[in-house]
Design a protein that fits this description.
It is a single chain. The protein has 177 residues and is mostly helical. 44% of the residues lie in helices and 0% in strands. The longest helix has 25 residues. The radius of gyration is 36 Å and the shape is rod-shaped.
């Protein structure tokens, strides 16, 4: 046989002993492997879909607690993040149970009492002041942070004389009263 004559393997002809039809998962003589390409596309697609479903399911407690109070939503979100990064399922279960329940409102009676005591004392209830760092704050609802730091210096509550307030430029340190 000379080197210029094509052989059966190089011409793409099938071996005479091979069946007439070969299944698609057997690679062709040119080295193409359609089954491997199909498997790769299948795995990439389902890995992406599986990741999307996993993250969608993982955000379920946060989406459930979205209508609850801000504090409860933040606790659920932190537990869901802990569960995501630590792979501890108990955090996700706790977040799901916390999102499924409505926590009792203990803050409203306390706020009402504080507002009543402030009006009896002739002072302004500081929880009604809008805070510049709390964008969604509605006056009359409890503030979730801080104390009376939002009031400008020298501002006194209604009904008070302001006699105890320091005058601008007057240093009261070291004076005994």
């Amino acid at each position: 046989m000379s080197e210029t004559e094509p052989t059966a393997a190089s011409s793409g002809a099938l071996n005479p002993l091979a069946p007439d039809h070969l299944p698609y998962f057997i690679p062709g003589p040119d080295g193409s492997d359609p089954m491997m390409h199909t498997a790769i596309y299948f795995l990439i697609f389902f890995a992406f879909v599986g990741g999307v479903l996993y993250l969608h399911m993982h955000s379920l407690p946060e989406r459930m607690s979205h209508g609850h109070s801000r504090t409860q939503f933040q606790i659920v979100a932190i537990l869901a993040l802990l569960a995501l990064f630590t792979h501890e399922n108990i955090f996700w279960i706790i977040a799901l149970l916390l999102a499924a329940t409505t926590l009792p409102d203990f803050l409203t009676p306390v706020t009402s009492g504080a507002r009543s005591l402030a009006s009896l004392a002739g002072r302004l209830y500081e929880g009604d002041e809008p805070r510049e760092d709390d964008i969604g704050h509605v006056p009359g609802t409890p503030v979730s942070h801080g104390t009376s730091q939002g009031r400008p210096a020298g501002d006194t509550a209604p009904g008070t004389t302001g006699a105890g307030a320091a005058e601008p430029g007057h240093d009261t340190r070291g004076e005994k009263g």
